[in-house]
Structures are given as structure tokens and as C-alpha cells.
């Protein structure tokens, strides 16, 4: 991601970072509590709060809350786009820090939607500071609400995650083709309606919305790092035509493909 795009910005009580889908290896201890949401699947190795390293498989929609002072090592060969919010006002997460150093919530639709909205603002040349703080506050509030009302252990989620792993792999392999819901439902051995509910429960978005998200992520990478025409990029990413990609871009990112390419040049 070009530095011309605003990918880090301070608000009154915190800092927002949009981490790109690039290989990384980090080892640090944050001074601040944080909330993070994954926009895409990401695999690697990590050690959180200990020296013992484990393989991890973070899913789109995974929403993590981590306390201040938590040692963390994380490494991934490809990374994945990720929204990270540092809470510089310690009193905002006092209750959480007293109960657990880290919790992860899966597939929360509101958290995913708010993360998309914050990302769209971060991609603007001059984001509205009041609107950005409002969306960040709602994102924080949703994290606290989940922490206070839900547990992370969900047997149905674990079962569906195993089923949907092959679906996510299939989507990645066939992203440039006309994907079919009935085919994916059959792969999951579910009726169409059950598949739609189950997928949303696991990832926080419908299959169509998730596929559009992944196509837009691929398109953004090509717009910023290639000389391909917008027509060719739309075809390579599985959009029906250039205007289809343009409409999706404007709706999700708040920018046209041309505007995004200009900013990322």
C-alpha cells in the first residue's frame, strides 16, 4: 500500500491502523489494549502471552480484543488485510483487562460492517474526523458488548468452520470465475438456506458479500501494483464488467477504481 493512502490515523482516545496483505514477522509487547478485525483469511505461526508457538488460521470476520502488556509473536508468509485499533485511553478497557488478556469473537456482522466503514474512511484523502471517531467508538462499543455477553467457545462455529474451510479455498481458487451458490452449498452438504446462514455465522458476511470483498482486495492490489487496464483488472478479479467493479468499489471503498489508482500511485 502506498504511503499516499492514509493507513494510520490518530483519534482522541486511540489510533487506527489498516495493515496490508503483505508477509510479516513481528515480536512485540503493546503498551495499549487493542481491537482488531481480519478482512481475509490468514495463516501463520504465533505465540501470544507465552513462548510457545502455534500454527494459526485466522478467518475473515475474526474480531480480537487484546489487553495492554501482552507479549506477542506473529508471522505469516502472505499476511492479510487487518484493521487494528489501539486504545490509548486505558480506562476504556479496564473491565476486559481484569478478566482476560485476549478474546476472539467470530462472525459478528456488526463488527464486520463497522470495520468496512472505518476502512473506507481511512482510504479517503481527507477522512471526516468526526465520522471516523464515531465509527471507531461504535466499533469499540461492539467489542465491549461482545465481551460482556458472549463466550468464544461455540461448538457449532467449530463444526461449521471445518466445513467452510474448503469453501473458502474454493472461492480463492475460482475467484475470477462466475461462482455458484448451489455448488458451494452442495460442497458443504447443506441446503441453500442453511448454507447461507452457516456461512454468515462463520464469517460475519454472506457468501456474495465475502466474494465481492475478496475480489475488491485483489483489484486494489492490481490497481496499486500493476499497469493493467481497469477493464482487464475487472475481468481478472471475476467482475462481470468494468462498471460492475466500479459500482462495488464505490459502495465498499468510497472511491472509484480510478481514484484509488491515483492515490496509490
TrEMBL record:
Domain HTH araC/xylS-type as annotated: residue spans: 165-263
Swiss-Prot/TrEMBL keywords: DNA-binding, Transcription, Transcription regulation
Entry keyword Transcription regulation: yes
PANTHER family, alphabetized: HTH-TYPE TRANSCRIPTIONAL ACTIVATOR RHAS-RELATED
Pfam families recorded: HTH_18
Protein name stated in the entry: Helix-turn-helix transcriptional regulator
Presence of the UniProt keyword Transcription in the record: yes
Amino acid at each position: 500500500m502506498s504511503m499516499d493512502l492514509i493507513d494510520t490515523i490518530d483519534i482522541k482516545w486511540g489510533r487506527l491502523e489498516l495493515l496490508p496483505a503483505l508477509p510479516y514477522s513481528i515480536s512485540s509487547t503493546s503498551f495499549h489494549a487493542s481491537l482488531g478485525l481480519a478482512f481475509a483469511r490468514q495463516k501463520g505461526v504465533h505465540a501470544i502471552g507465552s513462548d510457545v508457538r502455534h500454527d494459526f488460521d485466522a478467518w475473515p470476520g475474526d474480531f480480537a480484543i487484546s489487553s495492554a502488556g501482552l507479549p506477542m509473536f506473529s508471522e505469516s508468509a502472505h499476511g492479510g488485510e487487518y484493521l487494528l485499533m489501539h486504545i490509548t485511553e486505558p480506562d476504556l478497557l479496564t473491565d476486559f483487562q481484569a478478566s482476560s488478556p485476549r478474546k476472539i469473537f467470530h462472525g459478528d456482522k456488526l463488527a464486520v460492517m463497522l470495520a468496512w466503514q472505518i476502512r473506507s474512511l481511512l482510504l479517503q484523502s481527507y477522512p471526516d474526523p468526526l465520522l471516523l471517531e464515531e465509527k471507531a467508538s461504535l466499533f469499540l462499543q461492539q467489542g465491549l458488548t461482545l465481551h460482556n455477553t458472549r463466550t468464544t467457545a461455540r461448538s457449532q462455529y467449530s463444526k461449521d468452520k471445518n466445513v467452510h474451510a474448503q469453501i473458502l479455498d474454493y472461492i480463492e481458487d475460482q475467484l475470477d470465475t462466475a461462482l455458484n451458490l448451489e455448488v458451494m452449498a452442495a460442497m458443504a452438504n447443506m441446503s441453500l438456506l442453511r448454507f447461507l446462514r452457516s456461512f454468515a455465522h462463520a464469517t460475519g458476511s454472506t457468501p456474495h458479500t465475502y466474494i465481492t470483498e475478496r475480489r475488491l482486495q485483489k483489484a486494489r492490489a492490481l490497481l496499486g501494483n500493476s499497469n493493467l487496464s481497469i477493464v482487464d483488472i475487472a475481468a481478472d478479479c471475476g467482475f462481470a464488467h468494468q462498471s460492475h467493479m466500479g459500482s462495488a468499489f464505490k459502495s465498499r471503498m468510497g472511491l472509484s477504481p480510478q481514484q484509488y489508482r491515483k492515490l496509490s500511485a
